[in-house]
Amino acid sequence: MWAPLRDDLRRGRGGGPGRMAEPGAIVDAVGRALGGGGALDGARVVVTAGPTREAVDAVRFVGNRSSGKMGYALARTSWLRGAEVTLITGPAAVAAPYGVKVRGVETALEMRDAVLAEVGEADVAIHAAAVADYRPVSPSADKIKRGVAEEELIVRMVANPDIATESARLMKAGSVSAGFALETADLVERAGEKLAAKGFDLIVANRAGEADAGFDTDTNRVTILGRDMPPRQLPLMSKFAVAGSIMDLIEDRLRQGGRG
Ligand code: C5P
Q1: pTM of structure
Q2: Which residue of 11, 20, 39, 202 has the lowest C-beta tally within 10 Å?
Q3: Which residues does the annotation mark as catalytic?
Q4: What is the Å distance from ligand 1's center to 12 Cα?
């Protein structure tokens, strides 16, 4: 068998003599063996995905509604195009893509530590995680019992660090950073503000509250904004196809020398 394909199939899940690899893994390993040769070939890509969970007590948490599907599609597409991919993910509802190194985390602080440890070496960082903006200041070690408060239970929260902003400062020359903006109103305007504030080269804006786009769906309808680029509105597409369009733009930027 062709060496790169054989090595990919031996690595990770499904390995071992006489055992057939998962059909999905075979399809992806063949896809990677046939693809590549572009700007992502051999590039190091870090992707964040999924929600974070911030403990309120021993059994409860605060988190965002996020399936992880968009981030996982980006990690898979990057690997298919020849990249070495690390996926840093909160608890997600989807299976890890074949070939990708997965670092599972739970809280925003854990995600931040994992990302900051990787991002300095990365050629591409994609921040697709729905990070909880706040965490309870002092989570209870025990389960909070019913009736501890008469009518209201007040949980004090503190802001989490912005992982994308901290990462942008650590990224090397020539790299590319991309993020997401999920908005309910003034989509393009707010996404444009986040593009600048968080040091992204590209930002993918999508609207919250649509039945066929946003979290938990298999499809998405996005507008991509970039530094020195007019907003590009894409039609409703599968998240895998959206990931392809995003990675095309990231490859263009890598070829143009990234963030200088
Ligand atoms: O400010 P907002 O949460 O809408 O920004 C979304 C973008 O910022 C996403 O790319 C998300 O992954 C990233 N983010 C982050 N750390 C946070 C909050 C958001 O990296 N604490």
Answers
A1: 0.91
A2: 20
A3: 64
A4: 31
